[in-house]
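User: Here's a structure from my thesis project, written as structure tokens. My advisor, Dr. K., wants to see whether a designed sequence matches the one we expressed. Can you design one independently, without my sequence as a hint?
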């Protein structure tokens, strides 16, 4: 059974960086096959994972309205196109969702898409989802299963508030995960309210601020080029090892 690892949190907290690092970790540990889903309209995982993409789920959805040949069924066409845009790399595949749908009526397409995505996901051991801050794909049911929920925040109060709101939304949608953690990224020590937050999230993980990560994003490098002595790797791998190492 595939395990869904979902990253959520306010903008700029480190969701994409930590999603990409999880890909690197699972790949290193040979815990494949892995499907990575970039669910942020401003996708950046292709660059972080060093992959060129040829299309997004959004372009397939639009194409279903315009490009599908008359003699072909919607199911058949969507299946071919989705498989075409899933990029295969060594140890993992990448699917980019792209921007939200336009104003047309996409219900029929979306229903078929959900079914095809479910079938595709069954082929993988782990599915890593890098969400956008608004959790749109989760609230619209495109992502309907969460096994591991990692809510990323910085030590800023507004960021923790967002983490609490996301936690509440996931509860309201009855998407309770088997494992959950609040990840305080770019941290410099224990946050105020640690004990109460621990009770709410079950687990709090601290990842230190790391200059190497900052310069990586400034230069536009991939996560695989990050030196394995980087602080963020040491901190986050320790946590991942606790979750997936046994
Ligand atoms: N531990 C860290 N130390 C230093 N910088 C970090 C750390 N984690 C992430 N960053 C930097 O913070 C910025 C935001 O990170 P990232 O893009 O991963 O966040 P995000 O939550 O995916 O943002 P968005 O919501 O915009 O997609 C990037 O420049 C990244 O390099
Ligand atoms: Mg991101």
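Assistant: Designed independently from the structure alone:
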């Amino acid at each position: 059974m595939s395990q869904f690892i979902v990253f959520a949190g306010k903008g700029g907290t480190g969701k994409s960086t930590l999603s990409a690092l999880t890909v690197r970790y699972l790949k290193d540990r040979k815990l494949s096959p892995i499907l990575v889903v970039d669910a942020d309209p401003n996708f950046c995982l292709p660059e972080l994972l060093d992959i060129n993409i040829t299309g997004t789920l959004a372009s397939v959805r639009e194409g279903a309205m315009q490009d599908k040949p008359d003699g072909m069924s919607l199911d058949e066409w969507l299946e071919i196109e989705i498989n075409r845009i899933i990029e295969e790399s060594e140890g993992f595949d990448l699917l980019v969702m792209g921007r939200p749908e336009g104003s047309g009526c996409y219900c029929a397409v979306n229903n078929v898409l959900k079914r095809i995505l479910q079938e595709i996901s069954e082929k993988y051991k782990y599915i890593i989802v890098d969400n956008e801050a608004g959790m749109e794909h989760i609230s619209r049911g495109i992502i309907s299963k969460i096994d591991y929920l990692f809510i990323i925040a910085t030590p800023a109060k507004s960021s923790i508030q967002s983490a609490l709101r996301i936690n509440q939304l996931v509860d309201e949608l009855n998407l309770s995960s088997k494992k959950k953690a609040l990840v305080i990224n770019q941290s410099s020590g224990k946050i105020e309210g640690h004990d109460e937050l621990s009770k709410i999230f079950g687990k709090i993980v601290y990842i230190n601020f790391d200059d190497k990560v900052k310069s990586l994003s400034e230069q536009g490098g991939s996560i695989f080029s990050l030196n394995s002595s980087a602080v963020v790797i040491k901190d986050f791998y320790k946590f991942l090892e606790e979750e997936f190492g046994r």
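When you compare it with your expressed construct, this may help: The longest strand covers residues 179-187.
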